[in-house]
From TrEMBL:
Cited PROSITE patterns: 4FE4S_FER_1
Pfam (any one): LUD_dom
Protein name: Lactate utilization protein
InterPro entries named among the record's database cross-references: 4Fe4S_Fe-S-bd (IPR017896), 4Fe4S_Fe_S_CS (IPR017900), FTHF_cligase-like_sf (IPR024185), Helical_ferredxn (IPR009051), LUD_dom (IPR003741), LutB/LldF (IPR004452), LutB_C (IPR024569), NagB/RpiA_transferase-like (IPR037171)
Positions of the Lactate utilization protein B C-terminal domain: 398-488
Keywords on record: 4Fe-4S, Electron transport, Iron, Iron-sulfur, Metal-binding, Repeat, Transport
Region (Disordered): 446-497
Tagged with keyword Transmembrane helix: no
Biased composition annotated in UniProt, kind: Basic and acidic residues: 481-497
TM annotation in the entry: none
Organism: Streptomyces olivaceus
Lineage, top ranks: Bacteria, Bacillati, Actinomycetota, Actinomycetes, Kitasatosporales
Domain LUD: 73-303
Length: 497
């Protein structure tokens, strides 16, 4: 995975700054509450939602267990349908492949120096736009929210609605000042009404759709048995990118595979309701290789690893690879609602980003080491996840990795161990607790001593512990330890021993 956003501090510092921005908090509060309420109503319409959720979980888990077999099946099916499959171990390799394919598709005029893009988290993850720009190729985002972010020289802050941190007035100002530098200017006297903003974007993008020779996309799903790729969207810009250019290049994470067409029945119900609160997506585009009668003449599929194989090896953390990028967890998260997406220092913000980014990138940087702590562990994210990712469980698991110093730094295709920075005291405390919990006699003595001295316990911790207890009440110690109570009321030997 590409590096963290340049200059981004660790989450606590970035969040502290974001929380002080009242405009940002207002934008986020309005947007997330609106989306979450609509989603709740859409989900309530289905009596079998729990069964669909479990089915999605089982399909994803099965696929991940047999990913090696399904990847080979995808390559065979795409190749048989006229496409070409490329394998990318990391971001650098993926960017090099895409840049070479774009250059090979050029025809000697200005069109060879630009591409149009469908909204894609995978290409953001590898910083493809920046890599192409370094080669003299301009990548134009065509999703409305991504267009706003690009024109504003901004960063996405939400998986589904990248410009969620902007209000209509800000968007109008961006269109007025920036559109002329990227192509067709915004209409004169443009207002902030949604219809006028959408029309300005449509006029601006139409000339790019008609001129571009290369389209770049990701995919929501790849069907292994046929090699079919699926993109779901709400605006129609994706379909323009997928059908008009002569060459189509799709960069897809290896976890996006589903085994059969029948599996789409589950996800095409759960994804739209969880993301846009719609019964179905307005545009669902599917393509298998190439055909002489319609669509691009050349199709390339770039299968991206970039840390996914390492994530798959973690029995607890691998469930993050079930994610179908619906963003439901962001919309219910109290931390995201107040801090916004930029504070996470990654293209994957919110609860899913807090468990996915540290696994794809390792926990070696200050940003990634802080992300597992960017949560109150309230569990709202797990409740709304359409594939039942237990995000709180993975967060706690990753906190343990950070404290102990786990897989941290990627060097090429290798992950090496490096002790976590600034956590020596925490590691010592956790190891002491581990020792005590594995020695029942010591634990019993400590509990009795704590009970008998409870009247003199301080209300706050001394030294470095003051930072923790300054915003928390220390739990009161009971007059009698549980073990002593159990022995007194039930008799006999302590069953815990």
């Amino acid at each position: 995975m590409s590096g963290t956003y340049l200059g981004m501090p660790a989450f606590p510092e970035a969040a502290r700054k974001a929380v002080g921005d009242s405009t940002l908090r207002g934008n986020l509060r309005h947007a997330t509450h609106t989306i979450r309420d609509k989603r709740a109503r859409a989900v309530a319409e289905l009596d079998d939602w729990a069964a669909l959720r479990e089915a999605g979980k089982q399909i994803k888990d099965h696929t991940l267990r047999h990913l090696d077999r399904y990847l080979v099946q995808v390559e065979e099916a795409v190749t048989a349908a006229g496409g070409t499959v490329h394998w990318a171990a990391d971001a650098d390799e993926a960017n090099e492949i895409v840049a070479r394919l774009v250059e090979e598709a050029g025809g000697g005029d200005s069109a060879e120096h630009e591409v149009v893009k469908v909204k894609s988290m995978a290409t953001q993850e590898i910083a493809l736009n920046e890599a192409l720009e370094a080669r003299g190729v301009h990548a134009y985002e065509t999703d409305l929210a991504e267009l706003i972010v690009q024109l504003g020289r901004d960063r996405p802050s939400h998986i589904l609605v990248p410009a969620i941190h902007r209000n209509r007035g800000e968007i109008r100002d961006i269109f007025r000042s920036e559109m002329s530098e990227w192509g067709r200017p915004a209409p004169e006297n443009l207002t902030d009404t949604p219809a006028e903003l959408a029309e300005a974007a449509r006029l601006h993008l139409r000339e790019k759709f008609l001129r571009a020779r290369v389209g770049i996309s990701g995919a929501n799903f790849v069907v292994a048995e046929t090699g079919t790729l699926v993109v779901v969207e709400s605006e129609g810009n994706g379909r323009m990118c997928l059908t008009l250019p002569e060459t189509l290049i799709s960069v897809v994470g290896i976890e996006k595979i589903v085994p059969r067409w029948q599996d789409l029945e589950v996800f095409l119900q759960t994804l739209p309701r969880s993301s846009t609160a719609e019964r179905m997506n307005p545009y669902t585009s599917m393509w298998t290789g190439t055909t002489d009668e319609d669509g691009p003449r050349t199709f390339h599929l770039v299968l991206l690893d970039n840390g996914r194989t390492d994530t798959l090896a973690d029995e607890v953390g691998r469930q993050a690879l079930r994610c179908i990028r619906c963003s439901a967890c962001l919309n219910v998260c109290p931390v995201y609602e107040r801090a916004g997406g930029h504070a996470y220092g990654s293209v994957y913000p919110g609860p899913i980003g807090a468990i996915l980014s540290p696994q794809l990138r390792g926990t070696g940087s200050d940003v990634d080491a802080s992300l597992p702590y960017a949560s109150s562990l309230c569990g709202a994210c797990y409740e709304v996840c359409p594939v039942a990712i237990d995000i709180p469980e993975v967060l706690v698991h990753l906190r343990e990795r950070v404290v102990q110093g786990g897989p941290a730094v990627r060097h090429g295709n290798r992950v090496v161990l490096r002790p976590a920075k600034g956590h020596a005291a925490e590691r010592a405390a956790m190891r002491a607790a581990q020792w005590a919990f594995t020695h029942p006699g010591v634990l019993r003595t400590g509990q009795r001593l704590a009970s008998r001295t409870r009247r003199v316990h301080p209300r706050t911790l001394p030294g470095p512990g003051r930072a923790w207890s300054g915003s928390r009440d220390l739990p009161p110690v009971p007059a009698e330890p549980f073990r002593d109570w159990w022995q007194r009321t039930h008799g006999g030997k302590d069953g815990a021993e």
